[in-house]
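Exercise (ungraded).
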Amino acid sequence: MTVTLLSPAPAAPLPPLSAEQEHVAAWSAGHLRVIGPPGSGKSVAAKAALLRDPEAMLLVPTRIGASRIREEISAFAPPARPLEVHTPSAVAFSILRSLAVAQGKPTPRLLTGAAQDEILAALLAGQADGVGRALPWPPGLPQSVLSIPAFRNELRDILARAAEFGLDGTELRELGRELGEPEWELAGALYEEYLEVVALADLPITSGERFDSARILAEAALALEEWEHRTEAPAPSFGRIIVDDYQEATAAVVRLLQAMTSRGAQLTLLADPDVAVQTFRGARPQFVASAAGDRGRGEFGAATLELSSVYRGGAVLRNVVATASQMVAPISAAARRRAEARQPGGTVRAVELRSEAAQASFIASVLRAAHLEAGLPWDELAVIVRSDGFRNTLVGELRRIEIPARPESRRMVLREERAVAPLLLAVEMAGSAEVTSDQAVQLLASPVGGLDPVAIRRLRRYLRGQVREGAAESLASALVAVAIEPEAAAALPNEFRSAAQRAARVVDAARSALAEPAPSPRGVLWAAWDASGLATHWRELALAGGPRGARADDDLDAVIALMTSAESYEERNPGSRPAQFIEWVRELALPTDSLAGTGQRGAGVVVLTAAEAAGREWPVVVIAGVQEGQWPDPRLRDSLLGSNRLADHELGRLGLDREADRRREVLGDEWRLFISALSRASRELVVTAVRDDDSVPSAMFDLVAREAGGAEAPETIERLDLRGLVAALRADLDADPGSDSATLLAALAGQGVPGADPAEWAGVGEPSTLAPLAVRTLSPSKVELALQCPLRWALESAGGKEAGRIEANIGSLIHDIAAEYPHGSEDELLAALDTKFSELELPEGWVAAREYDRAQGMLHLYALYVQQVPGEVETEVEVNVDLGDVRIVGRVDRLEHVDDGVRVADLKTGAPKSYDDVLVDMQLGTYQIALGEQSAGARLVYLTPGPADVKPRPQLRLPEDGGEIRANFARALSQMRSGEFAPVVNPGCSHCPVRTSCPAQDEGERCAS
Ligand code: SF4
């Protein structure tokens, strides 16, 4: 695979500093607390302070944020000076590494979130199987929670909180016992076991101690506190430590900062407690208030500076943010809320839409207007949402309507990625002795095979035919063969060949890699990926940009993340086998960060959560999905194990144990997220919500609507793309044929815009031909159709077919069995059903059970029928008879030899025709015409279980001149050979497979007549 690196955009210089920012940058008189609203220049002041002081270090809450700041200011840093911009965890890690080096121990390692999740999953699975230490199980809590992913999430949270406050498992357990919190006792016991597992995994002695991200901060603080007791090497010392977004600090971060101040650190803490976005990860904006105190936890005796001006956006945008800030209980002095914008202007809109789809269309039109009319690059537009799930949905929706949307950082669950799933599957198939037809179909339908559901159905139909002809043993084995054996794939018709060959090539490559001595997970996956040939294709798409390019970009990210995960898994588990890695990925429910999140991406509108958007700004911001239940999301975050209760207890914040208090706190956190999102726009802010039967806009939306002078509810949404333009011009032209629209459409058609050229307009041009059709062969089953509705016959003959349905598949299975057993007993028939039923590949459950019962019922009726026909019977008899200038070609279910000739019996599994209709049935009649004098009549045998018995419905032997049947046959043939096929509405229209192309039906009205 080739990786193309895009050069980063040139960094913009820092703006000139205001007097307040200059004061912060030049500060040198001890600890300083800087409080200001969003856009008041805190981050600019922080960067200026860092650049000015060679000893300074800047701490920011996230790895992506740190990387972005380094990129922004590296061009302005003094040459050869390392830019000290880090997360608190990175600083903690470096302290522990220094200690380990000083002690002559191996370097410690950071346990990733995914690796921690892996340990917790194994531990809980062991407990669920009754393995592991005895747990103090709280009364009333079902043990089944052990296998619920949500329980694992809650456990991870409470362990993180315990670690932040320096509690180990035993201490958490003791605390639970003391305070009557049985869930904490349980969590403490699990924590003890978890720490033992982590410690065991640190063996052998050559590998360093492992810390998860919560423990590493507390351990580093402890290391600084106890340095002299642990080593004789000099302790680290610190200069100015600038902490941006201090409202996101957890108790563990504060403890680390406190330990650093004891080693010389002078803190500059920049914050706005109204916009904390990491509270769900333990951030406590209350620490902003305590920083000015000088005695307890988080109290540094810091001087305070309040920033009084807002530089981002105009007064209109500032007012919305300031009003929303009133919804949060004030922490620390609230003067910042009165800070004023330095300039007028900005626009705010609140827009209600009638459905999710309308919301996506509306957002697309806002983005297009900003791009096309205001000339803003796509990169300068952002859409902010509340949750990861909605972000992913919206990215998909926007791409579908051709907006180049991309998620900010892709946190992906590897096993669910469409690019990863087929690689895992192919390796599994390569290593398995029993590949199932389900696996084969999944691979063929994945990006590796590339067959769509319709093609898969056609492939099944083709292979079923092969089975009938004896070329394959069963449908299941045939499907498996074409997906894993290159020779079998090569023998397929063109339509399926290359897709199956790709799938088989990938499995084959994985098989060869597995056969190597000591195959590694990464080596085998790489072989499969390489054989897929997708790297080049996706890279080309990605570089071409647009929605498909964005999708290909994501797919490539996912493959890179898979390979990176395999590499680190191999490092953690030397000698591991590919199957073990795949099992691990399949169990991994925790999202993994994409590496691409820190790199440069192609142009596109970024769609991100409020937490991801914190600290950034764009000229145009849309905040989507601000409706009741979504934003604010009122659910308590830790209803079971009480991690927030634990944090409150440790912080001495008693009184927050009632549910109402906890809900109020959650609501406050939701408002902080929303205010942070509102304050990201520098020019235009649009807030959207859906109002339909299930959703109403939330109080947050209402607040913005009041500030915007009312909510808009557009009746129509301008598409503002070429398709929308073509549609509008055609509508104009329809209303006024003399309008200028014709000229504009001609210009667009000249540029190749789809739908602009009248030649593409269905129903507008003249018929391409009215010449008669040359019908030379005729299937008896189609004759009646040509009489009933000539258009349906013509369209079906040209390929307009119904997708395979379960009913049709059951019917063909019954026909197969009946053909095999022309005189079968019920026992024989049911035994055959048992053997063949799995070929239908119905999903297990009630559908399969119902169909099995139905098939049994049909075979029961068939057994009764064959008892009545003891003579010679031929089945599946080919008919190929010339009748003048037309050949009749078909297959008769049963040709029954009776006293006065042969009788055609057609087995039916659908709804019965009346006796009268059977007398003139044209399928039977055409067979009788083909058989000529031998014919002794015909019959339909209905096997449909129901009140009716199995009495066959007969058609009499034709009179010598063929009678009505012969006349109808001639009429049908002449109809087929005419050049025009009119629709004839009839009772069969309701299940006609071509009704969407039929001008006699509403859904097909636009088609030519
Ligand atoms: S919908 Fe009815 S009228 Fe139209 S093609 Fe089908 S059968 Fe004919």
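Further reading is listed at the end of the chapter. For now, observe: The longest strand covers residues 886-898. Confidence is low (pLDDT under 50) at residues 1-5, 595-600.
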